[in-house]
């Protein structure tokens, strides 16, 4: 995300948020290379309540449009003409398989069975 202007709270941050940002920047922490951001920011809620609340919302946004395009592509595969009559439960299961198998689902093979 290069345009931080789309984050409404950053247009006019509260004094508390500015103070918390200064505290955060002054923290002397060693950060693990592979860190669970959810656990990290939940652990900061007592020290940085506004900043951690903001972080917990925005850490889950895709960093590029590629993820969004990929998901539309997978939905296009799931909702092809051959599968247009699938029940909602079946569509949910195909979606679950796609995202939990790392996108390694060959929908054409599913059609041939």
Automatic annotation (TrEMBL):
<dbReference type="InterPro" id="IPR008906">
    <property type="entry name" value="HATC_C_dom"/>
</dbReference>
<dbReference type="InterPro" id="IPR012337">
    <property type="entry name" value="RNaseH-like_sf"/>
</dbReference>
<dbReference type="Pfam" id="PF05699">
    <property type="entry name" value="Dimer_Tnp_hAT"/>
</dbReference>
<dbReference type="GO" id="GO:0046983">
    <property type="term" value="F:protein dimerization activity"/>
</dbReference>
<feature type="domain" description="HAT C-terminal dimerisation">
    <location>
        <begin position="34"/>
        <end position="101"/>
    </location>
</feature>
<protein>
    <recommendedName>
        <fullName>HAT C-terminal dimerisation domain-containing protein</fullName>
    </recommendedName>
</protein>
């Amino acid at each position: 995300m290069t345009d931080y202007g789309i984050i409404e709270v950053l247009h006019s941050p509260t004094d508390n948020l500015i103070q918390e940002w200064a505290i955060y920047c002054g923290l002397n922490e060693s950060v693990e290379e592979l860190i669970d951001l959810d656990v990290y920011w939940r652990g900061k809620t007592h020290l940085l309540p506004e900043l951690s609340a903001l972080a917990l919302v925005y850490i889950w946004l895709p960093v590029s449009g590629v993820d969004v395009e990929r998901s539309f592509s997978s939905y296009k595969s799931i909702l092809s003409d051959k599968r247009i009559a699938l029940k909602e439960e079946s569509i949910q299961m195909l979606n679950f398989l796609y995202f939990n198998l790392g996108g390694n689902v060959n929908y054409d093979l599913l059609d041939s069975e």
